[in-house]
């Protein structure tokens, strides 16, 4: 992961540095990035197995990697199809009601519909932010307007600042690149 902090204090995080200001983030005291520690198989496999089919179908529909969808689901709901956030986001991929409607999700608690709607939304965000995964994930978490207000950077919200690296780390553990 690469990061830089601009003059306003906003942190910009990406997996594809397109600017010399980005610096490689290294582990404390390390000189080389280390591979993420593997997630214990039973812990990772339970949710992954349970929702493998809807994730595979959504990946096929959108062209997104299954590992990316699994990473978002793990970060958003920890594979709890009945999860509801304090802001009203629902289901595996924590869709807000307006987002669910926009992407044709009639029942956000239905795992297949939720994952497909979330995948379509993420695909839209990737197109909006020129395939910059970090920005698309920031927009998924904080909303695209927040990313645009931050100058097409990860907004300076603590939750979003934690969310983006967490999903990228989970995606790396899923075998994503």
Task: Describe the model.
The chain is mostly helical and 177 residues long. It has one domain (2-27, 47-173): Orthogonal Bundle (Lysozyme), CATH 1.10.530.10. It has 8 helices and 3 strands, in the order βββαααααααα. The radius of gyration is 16 Å and the shape is globular. The chain starts with a strand and ends with a helix.
SSE blueprint:
Layout: E1 2-5, E2 11-14, E3 23-24, H1 41-50, H2 52-62, H3 66-77, H4 97-102, H5 111-128, H6 133-142, H7 144-149, H8 158-173
Antiparallel strand pairs: 1-2, 1-3
Helix pairs in contact: 2-5, 3-8, 5-6, 6-8
What's the quick description here?
InterPro entries: Lysozyme-like_dom_sf, Transglyc_AS, Transglycosylase_SLT_dom_1. This protein is mostly helical and 177 residues long. It is 50% helix and 6% strand.
Strand residue percentage: 5-15%
**Chain-averaged pLDDT:** 85
| Sheet with the most strands: spatial strand order | 2-1-3
**Helix share of residues?**
40-55%
**Count of runs of 4 or more consecutive helical residues:** 8
SS-based structural class? Answer: mainly alpha
The helix/strand order is: EEEHHHHHHHH
GO molecular function, one term: peptidoglycan lytic transglycosylase activity
Family: Belongs to the transglycosylase Slt family.
Protein name: Lytic transglycosylase domain-containing protein
Domain Transglycosylase SLT: 56-153
Index terms:
177 residues; mainly alpha; Lysozyme; three-stranded antiparallel β-sheet; 50% helix; globular
């Amino acid at each position: 992961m690469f990061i830089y902090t601009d003059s306003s204090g906003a942190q910009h995080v990406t997996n594809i540095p397109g600017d010399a200001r980005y610096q490689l983030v290294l582990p404390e005291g390390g000189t080389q990035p280390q591979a993420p520690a593997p997630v214990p198989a039973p812990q990772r496999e339970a949710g992954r197995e349970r929702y493998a089919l809807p994730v595979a179908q959504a990946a096929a529909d959108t062209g997104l990697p299954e590992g990316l969808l699994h990473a978002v689901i793990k970060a958003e709901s920890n594979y709890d199809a009945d999860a509801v956030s304090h802001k009203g986001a629902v289901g595996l991929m924590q869709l807000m009601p307006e987002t669910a409607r926009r992407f044709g999700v009639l029942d956000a608690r239905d795992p297949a519909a939720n994952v497909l709607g979330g995948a379509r939304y993420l695909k839209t965000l990737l197109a909006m932010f020129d395939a910059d995964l970090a920005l698309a994930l920031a927009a998924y978490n904080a909303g695209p307007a927040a990313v645009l207000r931050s100058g097409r950077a990860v907004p300076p919200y603590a939750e979003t600042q934690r969310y983006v690296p967490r999903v990228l780390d989970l995606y790396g553990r899923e075998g994503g690149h």
